[in-house]
Design goal:
The chain is 44% helix and 23% strand. Helix 1 packs across helix 3, helix 1 packs across helix 4 (139-151) and helix 1 packs parallel to helix 8 (277-290). The strands form three sheets. The chain has a six-stranded mixed β-sheet with strand order 5-4-3-6-7-10, with helices on both faces. A two-stranded antiparallel ribbon has the order 1-2. Strands 8-9 form a two-stranded antiparallel sheet. It starts with a helix and ends with a helix. By secondary structure, the protein is α/β, with parallel strands linked by helices. Strand 3 (78-84), helix 3 (98-115) and strand 4 form a beta-alpha-beta unit.
Length: 291
């Protein structure tokens, strides 16, 4: 996309996500991601029914009548969007690529966070961390994050989730919220996934194109691995070949889900040819119910 197309898409994303945040997501987000404890707010006069243990005896002694300490939830959190920008995310059998869908999802999450006065940061990775935006507040900052995802041009084709999460742990304070958005075409990241989940609230969002699940009957097709460059020719007229392709991908999907379950990682599975709002809402409501 050129600069003009990017600006137009950002405007469209902003309008779309703003409506969703104001009607649905801000409340869902706040109900799931609460602050890390309470903090002192003010002292006020004691009222019948107040908890006696909250009386501030020093102020009470000075003023000659009972005063209590009032506390509020320490609301502010940091959300880090860790977005896979490897070559495989540039694929799309629909008008939008996986990377573009990732930008839209990131915008929705980010606008929900700033609506609740939280900070938002960004990590774009391939087989190394290529771009980092420190967490900040504000609408302008979120628009910059969305633009960076849409404008991003990866230098490397591969995927290294382990390195991305290691970097995340290094730059974030504990108890942050981390959304890992990827197609998870990688291996060997399970240990680091577990370590990151112990420090932060980690949610894995898997993006999958329909053609990564099954192939149509369209004759001879050359499939290329965007990251390794390897190619293979499949005769999609063969039902056996199509079925084998489907089974291989279903097996990989099942293995990934098992990794998430074994490590107690919350996950959201999103097909790029289907609306992503429903699975996001379902996740928030299920997690809120657990809380």
């Amino acid at each position: 996309m050129n600069e003009k197309e990017i600006l137009k898409k950002i405007q469209r994303i902003e309008i779309f996500t703003d409506r969703l945040v104001n009607t649905v997501f801000a409340g869902e987000y706040e109900s799931v991601f609460k602050g890390q404890g309470i903090t002192f707010d003010e002292v006020r006069e004691y009222q019948v029914g107040d908890e006696i243990r909250t009386i501030d005896w020093n102020v009470t002694a000075r003023m000659g009548q009972a005063y209590i300490k009032k506390y509020v939830e320490e609301r502010e959190l940091v959300m880090m969007l860790v977005v896979d920008m490897s070559a495989s995310t540039s694929f799309g059998s629909i008008p939008e690529t996986k990377a573009e869908i990732a930008a839209e999802i990131a915008a929705l999450l980010a606008f929900s966070a700033i609506k609740n006065n939280d900070k938002v940061g960004l990590i774009c990775f391939t087989d190394t961390v290529e771009h980092y935006v420190a967490p900040r507040k504000g609408r302008r900052h979120v628009l910059r994050v969305v633009r960076d995802i849409l404008h991003f041009q990866p230098k490397q084709p591969g995927t290294n989730i382990e390195e991305a999460l290691t970097f995340t742990d290094r730059v974030l304070k504990p108890h942050s919220v981390v959304f890992l958005i990827s197609d998870f075409k990688d291996a060997g990241y399970e240990k680091q996934l577990r370590l990151t989940s112990k420090q932060h609230s980690l949610i894995a969002i898997t993006l999958q194109d329909r053609r990564e699940v099954e192939l149509p009957n369209v004759g001879l097709v050359e499939l290329a691995d965007a990251e390794s460059g390897e190619t293979i020719v499949i005769d999609t007229r063969s039902e056996q070949a199509r079925q084998l392709y489907k089974e291989i991908n279903q097996r990989a999907d099942a293995e990934r889900r098992q990794i998430f379950r074994a490590n107690q990682i919350d996950s959201i599975h999103i097909r790029t040819d289907e609306p992503y709002v429903k699975p996001l809402i379902r996740f928030f409501r299920q997690r809120a119910a657990r809380s």
